[in-house]
Amino acid sequence: MATHITESDELLGLDRDALIEMLRWMILGRRFEEKSGEMYQIGEIGGFCHLYIGQEAVAVGAISPLREDDYVITAYRDHVHALVSGMDANAIMAELLGRIDGGSRGKGGSMHLFDRSKNFLGGHAIVGGHLPVAVGVGYSIRYRDTDAVCICFLGDSVANIGAFNEALNMAALFRLPVVFVIENNRYGMGTAVHRAAAIRNLADRACAYEGMHGWTIDGMDVLEVRRTVEVAVERARNDKMPTLIEANCYRFVGHSMSDPNYGHYRTKEEVHHYKLKEDPIKRFIDILTKHSLINETDLKRIESEVKQIVEESVEFAKNSPLPEPQELYTDIYSGAYPDIKRRDLWR
Amino acid sequence: MATRIMMSKLSPTMEEGRVLQWLKQEGDPVESGDVVVEVETDKATMEVEVMGSGVLRKIIVAADATVPTGTLLGIVAEPDEDISTILAEADAAAPAKPAVAATASSAVDSDIAARTPAEALPEAPQTMPAAPAAAAPEQDGGRVKASPLARRIADERGISLRQIRGTGSGGRIIKRDIEAAASAGLAAPLADVGPEAPYQRVELSQIRKAIARNLSQSLGPIPHFYLTTEIDMTRTIELREELNESLESRGVKIGINDILVKTAAQALLQHPNVNVSFAGDHIRRFSRVDVGIAVAVPDGLITPVLRNVGHKGLEQIAGESRDLIARAREKKLAPEEYQGATFTISNLGMYGIDEFTAVINPPAATILAVGAITDRPIATDGAIEVRPRMRVTLSCDHRAVDGAMGAEFLATFRAMLENPLHMVL
Amino acid sequence: MAVIAYREALNQALREEMRRDADVFLMGEEVGAYQGAYKISQGLLEEFGEWRVRDVPIAELGFTGLGVGAAMVGLRPVIEFMTWSFALLAIDGIVNAAAKMRYMSGGQFKIPITFRGPSGAANQVGASHSQALDSWYAHVPGLKVVAPATARDAKGLLKSAIRDDDPVVFLEGELLYAAKDDVPEDEDFLLPIGVSEIKRSGKDVTIVAHSRPLHTALRAAEMLEKQDGISAEVIDPRTLRPMDIDTILESVRKTNRCVIVEEGWPICGIGAQIVDDIQREAFDDLDAPILRVTGADAPQPYARNLEQLAFPQADFIVNAARRVCYQE
Fold it and tell me: Which residues lie across from B347 on neighbouring strands?
């Protein structure tokens, strides 16, 4: 299923530290999401909560080659993109718990994580809505004539919405440094991709935009993702051309915490198969083990470090106060919210 | 031909009647015009004459039962005549009037109520009270349409919206109407328009509201009647002077009113059927005489109550009365000090009023209106004499006190005042 | 001061702000090479180049979101809709992205963007192209909504909108572009957002109107003066959100009567909100129910006679004013 778009050695010439760092991000993403699921189940997290378990190779593979001045924007399954972009795990967990120390002061929630200081631009919950936003980021990069790039993650179902065409068309038309990464986890909620898209490979849609490449890759292989994104990022940085990457992956959990993992739309066996045979973390560990770059002790150390981060984030979030009532009416306008007290007499 | 014996409406106010006794038994032959049953109405006991002949075939409402007017009491018919249709009519009427059973059972003991046959119930139209129609005019009466601004200005200027005809849409009173009224002068603002006579609006004080609430319960549901007599006060005035002379050293001063209170109490003790209250389904005959004294206060009146007056001496009555009246004028009375009089005296003599009638202050059944003591020429033993005379009028709740009862009480009251020695009898 | 048309005033405002701040750029259909569908952007491409005066494909959702993205990272986009009717395709970008980004990010991202274009009635362009959806945008917390009625106000307010750090929905009157007015040439001429203006003083009735109906209201005020001796005070809120309700309240406290005029549909319209504010804060000053004169509660018809009937007409306003003055 994978199409190597470049020839390079299996480890992309990365040193051990860089590789271990990638693994560490993947494990952190996995453990953080497991904890999020637990927090949801005990009622500490409310609303919609979409976990990223199974897809870690995509975020880590795509974000790890970025520079600090590059931008990341994604949809609502955003916890791990935020983490890997550098957003503080404490701020993420506090946001999930709706606390004042959350990235959005408890006003955004799971689907609306943001970290301006890390150029992490969200966290967007209306399917397709953030693609034009990403194009605007690309536009501003060209406008200011810098060589930053913007990575825009999107789900497979976004390839079918009007905004997809409008955004990709303008990105190609204006030659904007945007890399679109479709995380094709095979189901838009409960609808299989082939039941929604009249095309076999979503990346082939790139052919509609002159100069835009479209690549379909193995999204469960973090090095494959990284290898491909690196090429796309260089094209964006140097040639000011957008790329459409389709990373085939699989989510090991339900669409959101309130959706079934399997049943009407996919089988238990299928989920088990991916978990056993395609787990991106296991696959990466296998590669690193094969190259004698990691051992059990290293893994235990990583797990221990990660556990500490995750547990600390829960501790931090639980100790963070709920937003004060006045937070209801802050962050709506640049100044004070005019006249609100005159119309809202009861709060 | 069968003849119905009905609980007829025997007076304009009669809504129900009680079957006292049947003078014929079922099976007795009956001639037209015979009295077959005695019925007690709100006014009197009436004999019901049957309007047909035959035998008394069926007694439907037994003696002692109270039923609404229009209820079928019995049937007179030929011995072999089929009366099932009439009985069926009574049956059919029964479910439509469930309230009747309650009326019956509240008025009679449950045993009799249980025996009151359902078929005795009347046809609906005959007994439906006209109450719903009466409520309608009031609903519209209170609403004055005025713009918020007009209301505010009227309020500020003390102008009653009721005296103004609105010129806005749908007769809405608007600002210019208030201004026109104000410039026309409050004395006669638009006096010739509108359905009501001009008046100045004075807001109700709390006490005024209480009076209105209480007394409107009076002349409405309470059937008043009035008994007036004139009393020679010569001896009472002499008595008062003597008493005050002897009590002067103790700083006590007894007023005519104190003597009236005491006298009334004494008389009431002799006529306990006047010291009563009508309590809906019963009469309360009080074992104690608590006399209320109507006291004018700046924004109304209040009736402090002297308790158990029958067992108090004049000196004590005078002291308590002075205290109560003083505190009444300062509005410092506790509710228990002005509620629950069994008898009330209202004296307007000091205003030169010769005689007047007072409105009963529930729950008491009587109130005595006392006029000024005035020197009047009267004929005594064939000669004209001038004597201090005082006219009093007793208002009675006729539901509880009848004319003769009131008159007897008043006679005792007068006799005691005209000859205070009677008080010790 | 110079007497110029509304469209020239907007052009001046754009030009001045783009000269003043290099982060300001204009984007929309036909804004560049074509010189603007309504000639608002005439000459701007030549002066500022294609990155700052950007023609876009017909993709309202796309270029609206593009503007939001650019604003997130520090630019000050001016997004032109060829008409606000087309912005219906972009309403997710305006409502879900622009209006809420600051809130959802806990204040991390401001969105200093101006969405502008012709709004309201046009002549015989039919139901899809002729409508005043002012209240849709005024409904949304996070947006500011401006609707100038004169060339002077258009210039002063557009400059303020561009400088504003919040997303501004700027509703231009499609039939006002040619309206002329004295407009200050001063580059620092700004009119504050959220301030009403009394366009005509009066004492008997307050008439509130914005955008094109303001001119209808002013005509009605003249008619009332001449025919009925009714002195109407006409107020243009100019900003629909946040609205300067105090100026209106002050006037109503004086006149005790109010008629509100708008081009949009009646249900949940701008006037409905003003009525709410007045009844809450000036209830005891009212001498008559507040009346509204709105566009007909129907899609805009094509036929000329029906179309005229659908607009708020001066004699409707006159009749409404007479009624609240109890002078029918």
Answer: B370
Cα–Cα distance for residue pair C56/C179, rounded to 1 Å: 28
- Interchain contact, C285 vs B176, CB within 8 Å: no
Strands B35-40 and B16-22 come out as antiparallel
Tokens at A278, concatenated: 């395609």
Residue B130's nearest CA partner among B215, B69, B209 is B69
Q: For residue C102, what is the nearest residue in chain A, using CA coordinates?
A: A331
- pLDDT score, position B123: 41
Torsion sign over Cα C200, C206, C209, C215: negative
Q: What is the mean pLDDT of chain C?
A: 97
Whole-angstrom Cα distance, residue C231 to residue C235? 13
Q: Which of C8, C16, C17, C60 is the catalytic position?
A: C60
- What are the tokens at C161? 């909108």
State whether C64 and A132 contact (CB < 8 Å).
yes
User: CA-CA distance, B257 to B318, in Å (whole number)?
Assistant: 9
CA distance B150 to B173: 7
Q: Quick one: tokens of B65?
A: 């039962």
Query: Stretch B110-131: mean pLDDT, rounded?
Result: 40
pTM: 0.68
**Which amino acid, one-letter code, is at B354?**
D
Residue B33, classed as helix, strand or coil, is: coil
Tell me the C-alpha distance between B129 and A194, whole Å.
79
Is the pair A, B in contact (3+ CB pairs within 8 Å)?
Answer: no
Please report which confidence band the pLDDT of residue B47 belongs to, taking 50, 70 and 90 as the band edges.
confident
What's chain A's average pLDDT?
A: 95
B192 pLDDT higher than 70:
no
Q: Is B421 helix (H, G, I), strand (E, B) or coil?
A: helix
What pLDDT is attached to residue B129? 37
pLDDT higher than threshold 70 for residue C42: yes
Chain A touching partners, 3 or more CB pairs below 8 A? C
The answer to whether A280 touches A26, Cβ cutoff 8 Å, is yes
Instruction: Dig out the tokens for C93 from the structure.
Output: 């970008």
Does residue B363 have a cis bond before it (omega within 30 degrees)?
Answer: yes
